[in-house]
Specification:
The complex is a heterodimer of chains A (about 260) and B (about 300). Chain A is α/β, with parallel strands linked by helices and about 260 residues long. Chain A is built from five helices and 16 strands. Chain A has two domains: about 100 residues, Elongation Factor Tu (Ef-tu), domain 3 (Beta Barrel); about 110 residues, 3-Layer(aba) Sandwich (Rossmann fold). In chain A, the strands form three sheets. Chain A has a seven-stranded antiparallel beta sheet with strand order 4-3-7-1-2-6-5. A seven-stranded mixed beta sheet of chain A has the order 11-10-9-8-12-13-16, sandwiched between helices. The chains are: A alpha/beta (about 260), B alpha/beta (about 300).
Chain lengths: ~260, ~300
Amino acid sequence: MMARDAVARVLDVVPHPLPYFTLVLEAPAIYAEVAAGQFVMLETTGGLEPYLRRAFSVADVSNEADGVRIELLAKIVGRGTRAMSRLAPGERRALLGPLGRGFTLPAAGPVALVAGGVGSAPLLLLARRLAERGVAFDFFYGGRGAVDLARRDDFARLAEQAGGRLVAATEDGALGFHGRVTEALAAELDAGCAYRSTYSCGPMPMLAALARLSAARSLAGEAALETEMGCGFGACLGCAVPHIEGRFALCCKEGPVFRLDEVRW
Amino acid sequence: MTAAPDLAVRLGPLALPNPILTASGCFGYGLEFAELADLERLGGIVTKGLSLVPLAGNPPPRVGETRGGMLNSIGLQNIGVERFLADVLPGLGRFPARVIVNLFGYEFDDYARLAERVDPHAGIAAVELNVSCPNVKKGGIEFGHDPELLERLVASVRRATGKPIAVKLSPNSGAPVALAEAAKAGGADILSAINTVLGMAIDPWTRRPRLATNRGGLSGPAIKPIAVRIVFDVARKVGLPVIGVGGVETVDDVVEFLLAGASAVQVGTALFRDPRAAERLVDALAARLVEIGVARAADLVGAVRPWGEATT
């Protein structure tokens, strides 16, 4: 599928609460075919700071009578995301996508989806695709506190629809498992849960921990990586990911989804 | 009715259909943009810097944004000249845009060897020598900061190719005119000014520099005044055609560089935020020429009216 640069109309901004929010955009028809894990480059301000567009996973997509809608789940971390959270319905922003390589959909479950904070974004669309196909999954969702598990009800509903459940993990212990999400996954594996593979997205230390855990238990998995990114389409070479082959892979072209065992963590 | 303005420009031996090119390192090898932009309308494409052997580049993080700009330390990751000639150049042949290959060497002799290698290829309109990359420990910038060495380097390339030679000047040397004179003495046909400006940014929370190499090259609108000044100085004092590079994004920027003395411009970082930034400028420049009643883009070259000198 060829990426397209378009101007998208803002339909809504939904707080979950802040700093997490979902931006709903009217998108070109090609997004109906977007793969979970693919991303867009979105113009946030059009001004000098930030100067570049920002990369966001497509968190959800729906076909409405009046066109295709996409959802971007984001967290306010700087000027770009703050400006984005303040967009009003009807405003227009340049939108390039869909970009990159998404997750490989499993033929059968059960699988584990593992999200750290706003890394849950690409896994929402993956959860929807799995639920549509009847592939069972448990959704492991971790963060510092309960607020970091944005839209957890949506994840729980999709997991239950597919015959699985949501496993929440918070570092402050306010919700679910008290500890890191990778520790919650390890505990479930120790308790006898068997997964065919994992699908993950989150901070690099979390993904590195997941890669170690998976290697020790011969558990296959794919992760959507987040890196500094200039252009999103392979021109700037800024989004280097150390590859096990001793080279740098481009997150925007080879990724953002990589097998856990092909990244040099 | 006004006749369509003439956008064609000539840089010594290099004729371009219009003065809008893409800057090295900002347009990949060209084909990355084929889906997203209209390559046919560009005056030319300058490729990512090519070396004799493929380079892996620097570890991440390689890019970091700053206000109105971007720091990078890619480290010249590239597929190498052989793969470019075999796999990329034939694909670029579909487009009429002039292809200028940017060449980078670690050793003195690398530049002439690269020039020899690309010389037989009719699809290549000119070479641009990267002697000013701030992101590699060895090579490149050493040649770009020493006038005597630069003159000999350009002369060695001159002997290796009959194609027009552009030399990309560093803003970090403090003496761009002396280096431009040296490039001219060595046989350069064109000067590209400027490469990125050495800079640094630090995350105030993590206390980490934003680039894994700590320092890197700053590009984008933030560096435009530096580029305009160097173009102005070099164009007036050296007498070679100049390509202006550094923060070009709007038609005002294009006109500003032409007035300063550039015969063409390269669009760089702006392409990352808008893949069509360069082709939009082709139309915008034509519209501007009509608006100001100038028949030819070339008529604006060096037409600045500097203070302290006769202005009429």
